[in-house]
Amino acid sequence: SISQEAWGRTVTMLTYKAGRYGGTLHKVPAPHTSRRCSACGFITPGSRQDQATFVCKNPGCGWSGNADYNAARNILHLYRMGHALVPAAGRAVVRRDKRVKPATAR
């Protein structure tokens, strides 16, 4: 069922909601984020023992932990290094006063 998800619409809605509450949404390239060790940067296909467990295969590292936590640390690192694709939806979000109707706000 995840392959039937409308990802473009999901990104648009997340961008809209984030902008509405004062935040921003940034896309980060996903390749290797779940296979790269967030401690040493070593990439190997066998580092995920199962869906939830990550164990670094680098002999000098050996870090282990939750696979989602590891991937989230990698994504945060990519964002901090400036590899985010900004803006996510490619358009600005317009904020208006909640009491003003859309027709009169133009």
Keywords:
single chain; 106 residues; mainly alpha; 2 domains; two-stranded antiparallel sheet
Describe the structure concisely.
By secondary structure, this protein is mainly alpha-helical.
Helix-strand layout with pairing:
Layout lengths: L6 H14 L32 E3 L8 E3 H14 L21 H4 L1
Antiparallel strand pairs: 1-2
Radius of gyration: 19 Å
Shape: elongated
Number of continuous helical runs = 3
Count of discrete domains = 2
Rounded to the nearest angstrom, the distance between the terminal CA atoms is 40 Å
Secondary structure: number of strands: 2
How would you sum up the major sheet?
2 strands, antiparallel
Structural class label: mainly alpha
Instruction: Identify low-pLDDT runs.
Output: 91-97
Write down the secondary-structure element order: HEEHH
- Give the strand content: 5-15%
- Spatial ordering of strands, largest sheet: 1-2
Helix content: 25-40%
Mean pLDDT: 79
Describe the structure.
By secondary structure, the chain is mainly alpha-helical. The chain folds into two domains: 1-27 and 84-99, no CATH class; 29-83, no CATH class. It is 30% helix and 6% strand. It is built from three helices and two strands. The protein has a two-stranded antiparallel ribbon. Strand 1 (53-55) and strand 2 (64-66) form a beta hairpin. The radius of gyration is 19 Å and the shape is elongated. Residues 91-97 have low confidence and may be disordered.
